[in-house]
Amino acid sequence: MSIQVVKHINKEQNNRTEYLFVNFDYFDGNDLVAKLFGQEYQMLSDEKIDGMYYSIIKLHKDSTEYDLIWHEDVGNYIFSLQQDETSINELEQRLEVIVSKLNEMIKA
Q: Are 84 and 34 in contact (CB under 8 A)?
């Protein structure tokens, strides 16, 4: 079963564009995703915030900022804090590379 991302418009969060990871519902999975963003795009990650039912890793480089979240109700997802078209398209392109790498890892 391969990992995919699905674009989702979160109407409860001002129509925020989010990308949900499918077949990748791991509590610590976002640690690996953050590491891959660091290797591929030199993004820095802040210390993970662990809550009772969620965890958040903030990724950033220059003016680009992403929130990478695991929540027990929905699993792993990511979104750009900048919700302009350019930022959303850039995140989508980056996710293609990240998901490809994750799928390579699970095949090995």
A: no
